[in-house]
Design a protein that fits this description.
Helices cover about 25% and strands about 25% of the residues. With about 350 residues, it is of the alpha+beta class. The longest helix has 27 residues.
């Protein structure tokens, strides 16, 4: 697109019509008519990560290593160093650390496309541009949140899920597909601490733990002892401030995007849900973990504009590519809840 400079002699009408001389007046900051993809891309990335759940629960250590769809990132995992007993005069053993590798494949992509009448208006008015980037980032967040949770929710260690969870004791019932746990105000805290204990038995660090529940569990929590300020040692009850915060070392997030399904049948990816089967859904996932458990990498690969070939206006489109992988299965736990 050509650059149009601002001048006081020619006003812009409500339709964004430019003067024949190619100059326009703007009762504010002068602007360029050149579409700036980097500006859009930066705004989208900033707003996108601010809105996501997975941006909080997953690590993005390899975020800068991708450039486009089909990229692969080789991740070296930390090898286990053996510890030996020592006695005076003995010969020492020396291990040769051999890290395993995990391949993170950038094999997912989401895009948006909008038709705008005047890119000049879009670039020059921060509120209008914010409106577009806010909505694009939020809609993209919803779709990718669904994908990330559905892809990874049951990929944790076998000892961290099921009716006999716990790598050491096997003493915790976290529910199964055929026998999900029914949560009530009297047992929900016990179930949450069971998830915490399962991670303890897998030697997961206490910091950077997270828990994803649904609005149903949040409502049950409000009926439990957690709602009493004196129980939590807080100055005010969560019934007043509406914030769950942390429970037993978990930072708690509430999401409608967890996988669901009918007991005994396949889990449903919310991306494919039409809403018509809602009455048949009998179980859903409550997911707990450590930030090291899931790796996520994403890139706003392309933001560009082009003239609409079929109508007046300018087409603006953007592509986000991403990949996700469970890199520490011991750091991921699953509770299958009824409902």
């Amino acid at each position: 697109m050509s650059t149009i400079t601002a001048a006081a002699a020619y006003p812009i009408n409500s339709g964004g019509f430019n003067s024949p001389a190619g100059q326009v007046a703007y009762s504010g900051t002068a602007y360029s008519g050149s579409f700036i993809p980097a500006l859009w891309s930066g705004k989208l990335a900033q707003k996108f990560y601010a809105a996501t759940v997975f941006g909080e629960i997953a690590n993005t250590d390899w975020q800068g290593d991708i450039t486009g769809m089909g990229d692969t990132v080789i991740i070296n995992t930390i090898p286990t160093i053996n510890i030996y007993s020592y006695s005076v005069g003995q010969s020492l053993n020396y291990d040769v650390p051999a890290p395993n590798t995990i391949t993170l494949t950038i094999n997912h992509g989401k895009y948006f496309g909008v038709n705008v009448n005047n890119v000049l208006e879009l670039q020059s008015k921060p509120k209008l541009m914010d409106m577009f980037t806010n909505d694009a980032s939020m809609q993209m967040k919803i779709q990718i949140d669904k994908d990330v949770l559905y892809t990874n929710f049951n990929q944790g260690a076998a000892a961290n899920q099921g009716a006999t969870a716990g790598a050491i004791s096997g003493a915790f019932n976290l529910g199964t597909d055929l026998a999900p746990v029914t949560l009530t105000a009297s047992n929900i805290l016990q179930s949450i601490t069971a998830l915490s204990s399962v991670l303890d038995e897998s030697n997961v660090p206490e910091t950077d733990r997270w828990l994803i529940i649904t609005p149903t569990e949040r409502q049950i929590l409000m009926q439990s002892n957690l709602a009493q300020a004196q129980f939590m040692g807080d100055a005010s009850s969560i019934l007043r401030n509406g914030k769950i915060g942390m429970i037993d070392r978990f930072t708690v997030y509430v999401s409608n995007l967890v996988p669901r399904g009918t007991a005994g049948n396949a889990w449903t990816n919310p991306n494919g849900s039409t809403g018509t089967e809602a009455s048949a859904l009998k179980r859903h996932a409550i997911i707990a973990g450590h930030k090291s458990a899931i790796t996520f990498a994403s890139q706003i690969a392309k933001v560009e504009s082009l003239q609409n070939p079929n109508d007046f206006g300018t087409l603006v489109r953007g592509l986000n590519v991403y990949g996700t992988q469970v890199t520490q299965p011991n750091g991921l736990a699953l509770l299958v809840a009824a409902g």
